[in-house]
Amino acid sequence: MSTPPVRKEVLIVEDDAKVRSALREVFLSDGYQCRVASNGREGLESFERERPPLTLTDIKMPVMDGLDFLRRARTLDSDAAVIVITGVGDIKTAIESLKCGAYDFITKPVNVEAVLIAAERALERRQLLMERREYHAMLERRVGEATRDLAAALNELEDTYRATLEALGSALDTRDVGTHAHSRRVVGYSLTLARTHGLPDSQFRDIEHGVLLHDIGKIGIPDGILLKPGPLSSDEWKIMRTHPDLGRRLVERIPFLRGAVPIVYHHHERWDGTGYPLGLRGEMIPLGARIFAVADAFDAMTFDRPYSVAISFDAARKEIARCAGTHFDPNVVENFLKIPLELLETIRNGSVEWSQAAPKGPAAREH
């Protein structure tokens, strides 16, 4: 710690010249540097100028008494070590001085050994107070540094998670013909819609994770079904429709991804209850999944795929509006239609990173 060593300096505030001189000689003989003052005001001026570590003051003095001096000195330096000198008949005032912050009081006539012992103890106590304050300040600095380091590490870890999930989302896209960068775009649409819908920022991460991983269950679907160029048979559809449950079972095992489960498990539910896997209806469907459904459909309709040709943004918005109340949550659709076309175009073209889209600002083939 950087606390300076104890300075053997004393300010003696005493109106009696003989007592003042005697005290000065006592402290000089013990190696102290001494300053003297004949009243409280003179003493306060010296204290403010020199800030001595130790002060002895009489109580009854002209111009400014000892108690007034003590209060003002403590205001200037809360660590000031002040010893009060008082007459035998003025013990009540001496006790009052302790309440005002004096370290100790000594009665007249002054005993040389007692005053030096009291002075040494007062300086030791002052040093301990200063060291303790410096120690607490050091701890606060270290805690602050550790907190900043931890925040940086967490940010780096979060960036790593995000990059990993983005890579996984892209890998999932490559298994499904014609959906390159689909998850990346849908994240941007979903986060923008979530903000427009009034969701708090605290829910954006779960939405990001849910969108990126919504089709993770497809890793359990055979390529012969997933990549089949023609229509699926009824048995093949039964297998295909297991991917939300497969995804749920994968994601819920990972603690930091559990918030993504509602989208992963329910992204094929429909507002009118005709979806799967549970056939949930209306607001029983998690809000994140209802937001995803709109964003996902919009991207599917506005991007070329082997089994469909892209339509214009205007046409896609009209189709989504038409399906409000059947496929989609009407309130979510209403807020989606408030998003400027220019922003949707920017997200589609990748001009805005999906991870920044929200915090800073049945038309397709169903799998």
> What is the assigned CATH homologous superfamily of the largest domain?
Hypothetical protein af1432
**Helix/strand order:** EHEHEHEHEHHHHHHHHHHH
Termini separation comes to 66 Å
- Average pLDDT metric: 85
| Major sheet | 5 strands, parallel
Shape: rod-shaped
Q: How many domains make up the 3D coordinates?
A: 2
User: Which class best fits the helix and strand makeup?
Assistant: alpha/beta
CATH class of the largest domain: Mainly Alpha
CATH topology of the largest domain: Hypothetical protein af1432
Radius of gyration: 39 Å
Beta-strand content bin: 5-15%
Architecture overview:
By secondary structure, this protein is an alpha/beta fold. The protein has two domains: 9-139, Rossmann fold, CATH 3.40.50.2300; 176-356, Orthogonal Bundle (Hypothetical protein af1432). It has helices spanning 17-29, 40-50, 66-76, 91-99, 112-175, 182-197, 204-212, 223-226, 234-240, 243-251, 261-266, 287-301, 313-322, 330-336, 341-348, and strands at 9-13, 33-37, 54-58, 81-86, 104-107. A five-stranded parallel sheet has the order 2-1-3-4-5, with helices on both faces. The longest helix is centred in the middle third of the chain and has 64 residues, at 112-175. Residues 358-367 have low confidence and may be disordered.
In brief:
Helix content is 54%, strand content 7%. The protein has 367 residues and is of the alpha/beta class.
Task: Write out key terms for the chains shown.
single chain; 367 residues; alpha/beta; Rossmann fold; Hypothetical protein af1432; 2 domains; five-stranded parallel sheet; 5 strands; 54% helix; disordered C terminus
